[in-house]
Each structure stands twice: as structure tokens, then as C-alpha cells.
Amino acid sequence: MDSVASWKAISAAIAIGLSALATAYAQGKIGSAGAGAIAEKPESAGMIIALQALPEIIVILGFVVAMLIVTGK
Amino acid sequence: MLLTMVKMEIIGSKKYFYQVLALLHELGTLHIEDLSKKEDLFLKRMYLDEEAAESKKDLRNLLTRINGIISVIEPTDIKKFSDKSTGHNLFWKKNSTELHEDANKLLSVLEEKTRSLASKKSQLELELNSLDRYQSVIKRIYPLAKSIVSLKGSETVAFLLEGDYKNTINVLNKEFGKITNDNHELISTPIDDNTTAAIIVFNKKYSAKIHRFLSSKVSELNLPTDMKDLTIDGVLREIDKKKIEYPKEIEKIQKELDSISKERYFKLKAISNAIQNKVDEIEKVSSFGETEFTFVIHGWLPYKDMPNMKKKMNENFSGKILIRQLEVSTEDLERAPVVMENSPWVKPFEILLKVLKPPRYGTIDPTLFIAIFFPIFFGFIVGDIGYGLIVFITATVLLYKLKDTQSEMLIATARIFQIAGISTIIFGFFYGEAFGTLMEIALAKFHLTKMFEWQIGAIHIPYSRDPNIENRIVELLFISIGVGFVHLVTSLSMGIVNSVREKSRKHMWEKLGLLIFIVSFVGLIIVKAQNIPYVSGLMTLLLFAGLGLVLYGGGLLALMEDSIGLIANLFSYLRLFALGLAGAILAAAANSFVEILGFQVGIILAIALHAINVIVGTFSPAIHSIRLNLLEGFGKFYEEGGEEYKPFKARR
């Protein structure tokens, strides 16, 4: 594998890896706070689940950047 | 759209007050304004007289008793009851005294009977539940009990140690030794991971001390009174017998309750609603005003309902009640309730607005906006014929199953996903995707690819989301931003309209400035990219003009925050492309399992991955579509602060 391809691979991995970590951290915080909120107020479950889904755009965009790196010339 | 509301005043002699109140309650269109804070020289707050207060107390008491019976005989499946309207019309027109009499008649027949049946049933159910527990414990301690020799003058007590205390048996043994001077026998056995059973045999003279000690430390195994004198074998036999008898008795009681329910449930419900209506009417009194001889009611209702209200008042009171439309001030408009009326395909989207406060009266109803853009965003992201069909069919089946329920939220959600499913199918044709690349593979196999290709201008359909196609990713990026641009321009335009309606000039200039700014910003990028001569100067001028208007309308903070925020909002629409591409790649990966692993293994994995993709691909795009509308879209025009329309309406 030439050096350009290997650097592409490393860059793509960093792009998606770091954004996945960030998403995991954010969703972990939301999840644990949300669990407490639902325990006190069960009717807020729908809203909490929706909020839980919001940070996943971070990893999706990281994936897109990785795709751009890998498929770019 | 938001309906036009009118403010009405109703004045009449106090002798007609309760009749007018009952009529308003029946019509159910007037949102009553609280006049208690509007006292002036001639108008005072209305208070309940003693008779009305006493009547309210009695009615509340009756309501509690009737609802108690209803909770006991509530049928599990109302659909099986053929005549749901029984009794409703009997009570509708009755006054408090008549309702009182009817309620007491029903209660005298049903109250005692249902109470005793319900009490007996719950007692049997409680005992039945505890019998299982006794049985499992006794079966475990049976070998223990057999090994104990019961002497005359001795007492045997069984107890349980649970949770953290199950390892304290040695400590307990020492304590028993202190009480009985070591004249006792203690044996134990585990029941489950969390419980240990133990039996202590001791001289009866220590009974009181042992029981006192046990009651403060552990759970004594107290058998039902009728089993206390039986042997362990006898207890087990009695438990088996009761486990057969009790369910039969419970079923018999339930049948009796069901027959009462069939005969009386809807009548009780009707009288309960009628009494609750009367209580609501009496409680509303404090919202009205009065003079020495007249009552005064102020309220709001939709303009279209005004003729009917005037007609009913005249019919029932032959012109003795004055009903007129009041002129509204700016202050009144801030308190005007808001009613939305939308076409059947737009109406379901009203539930998405429930997370916000109602829009201010006089502003644009945002429901149509979200009804157009939510399906577009959803379809743009998912864009798959197969997935779209699954979403549409699932939503349709759900609607069919929900047709008899009262759950507006679930029905509206199902309708939203029906519409979103159709949009997904349309975008699926645009992208040429059905379960990812499956359609492409199938068409290629049967040489039908050319049949499903079109050219619309420069766009070649199907417009595949394959990232390996040159420049495709960048094109999709720009298309997403383009969709976002249209969304933002629409919302800013609606913001300008709202500012004009609210007569807020500064707000209007700010929104106009932001609109010019974003149009010229995007225009400048296109002009520079395409190298169009002469226009870039004009675009730059417009850009600064827009910023100038923002500064004039909103100040320095608006200039810094809103204009930069608008650029950030624009790039937020990249999620449309990102989520969509991720879903498409996942679907393609699912199809590749068949090629890599062979048909038999590959198809199972492919179906599993497609199933996950459908579930995630429905939930996530829905969340992000809602978020784009509520945050990026509504942030530019939505004016919160309206009052919810709560008409004074009778229960039926």
C-alpha cells in the first residue's frame, strides 16, 4: 500500500473514531440523565428518547468526512 | 390555518343564569375569559351562593361514589358492548336535584353489591398470590420440619431471612440462646438466591420474647388463620385445594361483575358525565361577573361559530339574553385563544407542535410548513422504495388497528408515517434504490436497466447515491445545502409576514436583512464557483446591505449572533445527506453479504441488516427531520405565546 493510501486510511479512521467517541460521550451523559428523569417522570420518556438520538449526527458527519477522505483523489 | 376568533359578551337577568350556563356548556364552543380580575364600579366577581356551594359538595360526593363503582365494573373490551349510548340522553337535560335522585337510586341498588363483590375478589386474589409463596417456602422447609421432634410444651416458629440478612443465622442463634438459655433448636435451608428459611423450636414459656425479637428482626412466616393448626402435610394439601377453588370463585365473581357492567356501565358513565358537567358549571361561576341584577360572561369563540351561538340563545331565551361581539384591543389579542383548522393530510402534523406553546394569535399557522418539509426531509434521507413500502404498510396496518381507539396521538403518528412512506417511495425512484442496490442488481440481471432511466435537464435519473461515482458525494452535499437554503428562505419569508402582522417594524427589517444576507451569501458562492462576471460585486453589495438591515433591526447582538447562526443553520442541513448516505451504504453492505457468503447464509444476514436499517432508518430520520423544522425552521418565524383554546364543553 503506498503512503497516500495509508495516510488516507489513518485519517479516515481518526475522523470516524474521534467523532464516535464524542457521540458516545454525549449519548452516555444524556442517557444517564434521561434515565433519572424518566424514573421521576415516566411521561417524559418519549422526549428523552428523541434527545438521545440527536448527538448521533456527530458520528454520521465523521463518517461522511471519512468517506470523503477515502473516496477523494 | 389559525381561525379568526371573536370576543363575545353575554348579559342577562340572574334568573336565567344557570340555564344560559347549561346551554353554553352544551354548545361547547365558548372559551371563557376569567372576569374575576376585572372588577370595576359596576361589575363585580360572581360568587357561589350557599345553595350552589352545598349542591357542588353533594354532587362531588356522588361523583366519587359512582366513579368508585365504575372503576370496579369497567369492561376490559368496550367494543363488545353494542349500545354505548344507553342512558346518555336520559341525563343530559336534568338539573342538579334530578341528577341527585337518579344517582342515589342507582347507588342504592349497586353500591353495596359491587363493593362487597370487589372486596371479596381482591381478597381472594391476594390470598391466591400468597399461596404460591407459601407453597414454595413450605416445600423447601418440609424436610427440615420432618427432622424436628415436636415435644409437648414446645412451640415451632418458621421465619424467613431475606437480602443482606440471610447470612446472619449464627448471630440469630446466639440471640435465641440468650433468650431461651440455649434451650432451643434452630435449623435453616436456602429457599432461593436471596432468601433463607429457618425453623426454631423452643419452650412455650419463651413464646412472647421470641415473637417480640422476631417481629423486630425478620419476616415471620405467618400462615392463614385456617391453616395455623394443620400439620405441614395438611397445609400443603389445603394450599393445593385452594389453588383449584379460588380461581373458580374469582371467575364466578367476575362473571357477576361483568353482567352488572353489561347492564349498567354506560348508564353509570352517562350519569357520571352529567354530574361532572354540573360540577364544572358550578365551578365556572367564579370566572363570571355580576351586577346587582344581571350576570356577565366574556369569552372567545371561532368567528364561524358565532351565528349558531346567537341563534341558539335567541331560540331558547326569546331575546331576553343580550349577546354581542366586543371590539378587541391589542391587549385582548395577546390573550386570544388559538384554534387550528387544517385539511386532513395536514392535521396530523399538529401533534408535532405540542412540544411548543401555541403560536400567538394572528401569526401564521406553522402546521402546513412542517407538513410539507417533514415528508420531504424524511424521504430525502431514507429514499428507498422497499423501505418506503414497509413504512407505509406498517403505518396503514397500525391505523386500521387503531381506528376504534381514542388515541389521537397514535393515529396522527401513523398518518404522518403514511405520508412519509409515500415521500420515501418517490425519493426511492429518484435514487433508484429498493432495499439498497437490490433493484439495480435485479434490473441489471433482467436487462431492464434502460427502462428505468430518464434524463431531466442535466440530472440523470436514477441519481444513484453510490459514493464511488465521481463527484457524487460533493453533489449530494450541495443538494442538501440547497434544500436547506429553500427551507431557510421559506421560514425567513414567513418571519417577515409574521412581523408585519404583529406590526413589529424592527423585527421585520431584521428578518428581511437576514433573508437578503443568506440569498446573497449563497449567490456569491455560486457566482465565484461558476466564475460569472460582474455579478459578484452586486452580490457583495447585497450581502452588506443585508447585514446593515440586521444591524438596524436587531442591533449588534443580532448582527453577530443571527447572521453567523444562519450560516451554521445552513450547514446543519448536511445531516440530510449524511444520514441518507450512511443508510444507503448500510443497505448496499447488507446486499453484499449474499455475494460474499453465498445465498443461504448471506440472505439471512442481509434480511437482518435490512431490518435494523429500516428501524434505525425510520427513527433517526424522523428525529432529525423534526429537529430541522423545529429548530432551524421555526426559529426564524415562530412566535410562541398563544393561549390554548379550551372551550367550556360538556363531557359526553
Question: Characteristics of this structure?
Answer:
A: 73 residues; mainly alpha; B: 652 residues; alpha+beta; 4-stranded antiparallel beta sheet; 62% helix; extended
Description:
The complex is a heterodimer of chains A (73) and B (652). Chain A has 73 residues and is mostly helical. Chain A has helices spanning 3-40, 45-53, 56-71. In chain A, α1 packs antiparallel against α3. The radius of gyration of chain A is 17 Å and the shape is elongated. The two termini of chain A are 15 Å apart. By secondary structure, chain B is α+β, with helices and mostly antiparallel strands. In chain B, 62% of the residues lie in helices and 10% in strands. Chain B is extended and about 115 Å long. Chain A binds chain B through residues 47, 50, 53-54, 56-57, 60-61, 63-64, 67-68, 71, and chain B through 355, 467-468, 473, 574-575, 577-579, 581-582, 585, 619-620, 623-624, 626-627.
Write a brief structural summary.
The complex is a heterodimer of chains A (73) and B (652). Chain A has 73 residues and is mostly helical.
Main interface by residue count: A-B, 13 and 18 residues
Number of helices of chain A: 3
Mean model confidence by pLDDT of chain B: 85
Instruction: Give the end-to-end Cα distance of chain A, rounded to a whole number of Å.
Output: 15 Å
Helix residue percentage of chain A: over 70%
Individual helix count of chain B = 18
Layout: helices, strands, pairs:
The complex is a heterodimer of chains A (73) and B (652).
Chain A lengths: L2 H38 L4 H9 L2 H16 L2
Helix pairs in contact in A: 1-2, 1-3
Chain B lengths: L4 E9 L3 H11 L3 E2 L11 E2 L4 H24 L14 H4 L4 H52 L6 E9 L6 H12 L3 E9 L2 E9 L3 H11 L1 E2 L11 H53 L4 E2 L3 E9 L3 H12 L4 E5 L3 H6 L1 E2 L28 H16 L2 H18 L5 H24 L6 H8 L8 E3 L2 E3 L10 H30 L3 H26 L4 H38 L1 H24 L1 H35 L9 E2 L8
Parallel strand pairs in B: 11-14
Antiparallel strand pairs in B: 1-9, 1-10, 2-9, 3-8, 4-6, 4-7, 5-6, 8-9, 12-13
